[in-house]
Every structure is written in C-alpha cells, then in structure tokens.
C-alpha cells in the first residue's frame, strides 16, 4: 500500500486512521475492518483523503470511498455497475449507471472472500478502462 496525500493535504493514511479512532464505535471498527480487507485484496492500493474528509482507495482510478453515517458505513464503488457481484454485496445505489455501494449496518458481517474479489474486480475494471484510453490515444 502506498499512502498519499489527498486534496486536503497531510498524510492520507494517517487521516484515515484518525477518522477511525474519532468514530470510536462500531462504525470505526467496521471501517477499520473494511480498510484491512481492501489492503489485503490489493497490496498496491493507494489511500487518499479527498473532498474535505473522505477516505478513498485508488488503483488506476478510484476503487471505492469509505463514508460513515449514523446508521451505516458506506463503501461506494466508482465503477460498481460495471463489475460482477455474484454474492450480491451491493445493497445501495443500485439504480445508477456507474456507482454501486455497500451499506454495512451495526452488527452486520460482510462476506470477506466475496468482498476481496469485488475489490480485485474493481481494480481490474479500472486497469481495463485505463488501458483502453491509452490505446485510443495511440491511434
């Protein structure tokens, strides 16, 4: 994992750690667990801190954001509509043309193996789009 600074400056990884600590409840624990699964799924993922305080994980583009609300921890996948979700982890923002999200509520457990596959599929989709753009530029 390569920590980077996001648009708000500072060390993104440290900002994400601080956010997790500030939450101090099930949301912080959930965000920390999801963060670890993301890192496990893609050791080359880049952590960013954008939009005045949103954790973002990127690899050849945004993979997902991690937001915390009163009732849910929401992971929004930038290209979620384009990736396979055989285990039906996406349960929010299902009507959009691009994004899909996973809302995790207090006490819910996520299918870790399926989640890691989803992260890897999102990275593969980003890489494919990047390669396609590069090929078009060469023409």
UniProtKB/TrEMBL annotation:
Q: Which organism is it from?
A: Tunturiibacter gelidiferens
Query: Which InterPro entries does the record cross-reference, listed alphabetically?
Result: YdhG-like (IPR014922)
Q: Could you identify this protein by its name? A: YdhG-like domain-containing protein
Q: Which residues form the YdhG-like domain?
A: 27-123
